[in-house]
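Today's session is about reading a structure prediction critically. Students often jump straight to the picture, but the first step is always the sequence itself: look for stretches that repeat, for charged clusters, for runs of hydrophobic residues. Only then move on to the predicted structure, which in these notes is written as discrete structure tokens rather than atom positions. Here is the chain we will use throughout the hour.
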Amino acid sequence: MTDTFDIAIIGGGIVGLATAMALSENQHRSIVVLEAEDDIATHQSGHNSGVIHSGLYYTPGSLKAQLCVTGREDLYQFCETHDIRHEQCGKVIVATTDEEAARLEGLRARGEANGLAGLKILSPDEVREHEPHVTCRGGLLVPDTGIVDFAAVCRAFAEVLTSRGAVIRLSSPVSSASQDGTRITINTTSGSLRSKLLINCAGLQADRVARKCGYRPAVRIIPFRGEFDELAPEARHLVRNLIYPVPDPRVPFLGVHFTRMIHGGIEAGPNAVMSFNRHGYRRWSFSARDTLGTLIYPGFWKLAARHWRTALQEWHCSISRRASWERLRRLIPDLREDHVRRGRTGVRAMAVDHNGMLVDDFRIARDNRIIHVLNTPSPAATASIAIGRHIARFAGGDTPESH
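Below is the predicted structure for this chain, in token form.
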């Protein structure tokens, strides 16, 4: 007999688990989560910076802005309810030049348009009250930002799911799926099953899973490796909480920053370079399939043509420890080169369209009874509970055919 469920979800990361949790609020539905690895939260959800984002940077009215602000508060409440260690510690955005200082007011206005509270422009002396070792021309205080262990959040999501009768099947990568009337047949390496609805939340593999389901997405996942440093114990006093730069509007990344981690220690970074392996957490990890898939995609070359200078700078900082340190000490001049050590590495899924444009907002598409979550960039972990509820509404037909 082939197992049959009302809903099958591909992906045991934070978005897949949050979606299953939202759908399981109706306990009359049978739900299965299919995870390719032998544990949940193995990839992006377990390799991120642990920052609960405020929603400051995103275009007002965008799906990212709406879901980040709502999801942030949902996440704080979930952590309180389930006794997950977290802290709303706030962050300071630091301007190191007059040009950056002039952009602080625009950031504050955008944050207030997104519903953030307590934003405050700081003088250099006021910045040093929060972060004594920073040298700057001014700053912006963002009280809503926090820190958490997102792998712990995922484990709590899974506990909620199983308590409601949902099934989580590990080591079950999907090889194909086909629609036939009111049912979907899903083939995995651990067997076949059927469902009435299928939701693809495969993250770094979302575009490939979509094609296995017979859908041709208009984007390709290009993996970017984020290389973090960590501060030596004797240098951790240089950072109290979170220190971020003013983002450069010409590049698609926030820039290197300092983050106090919920379980101790200070991370710095990341560098952001193209990864040659979608699951490549070692510095020189290589996959011929992943590399070829990137290089034959026309959108990648258009993206590279637009941002090649930034790419060269990132590679330079990746290879040169001194270059990486010099970039960090723009924020904290007291940071010595021997204070900085290589830390962990993460891989981030960046959806790129055929024109070489990074897809900035969340993107969800429907193909009859299959829903494809094709792009959930940062702040997806922060917004996960709100994203899950949004996808649940989408599954119920309350949203447009594609977003």
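Discussion point for the tutorial: The longest strand covers residues 340-353.
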